Amino acid sequence: MTLFNALIRTHHITSRKKITKLTQAAKLHDVFVLLRSGGPPGIMYVEGHETGVRGWVEVVANLRYKDYQLAARPGPVVREGITAYSLTPESALAEIETVKDFGVQMQRREVYEWWRAGMGYAGPPDRL
């Protein structure tokens, strides 16, 4: 079964009301989500089955975040390592405070170079 992921950048993610909606959407669409909340930049990473990822991205787009950018469209996850990494058993949303910590999480999920390219820190990966 192929997992999909997507990356969204915004100016910031501070509204607790919107974060609650994102959490509800993660459960509804059965996806795993990482948010970099607080000040700029706002970063959202989503991973799950194709329909769930696409549905969750649509929810985010409808929330009208400032400077919303779909930095990496939904597509199959390409892991950089050889370790088999599985989704968290239940849908979940986790908040990360710093861009550095977000990068650490992307390394753990073995999508670090893909994330760096999506953020504009490196050349484009195979799929954006």
From TrEMBL:
It comes from the Eukaryota. This is Uncharacterized protein.
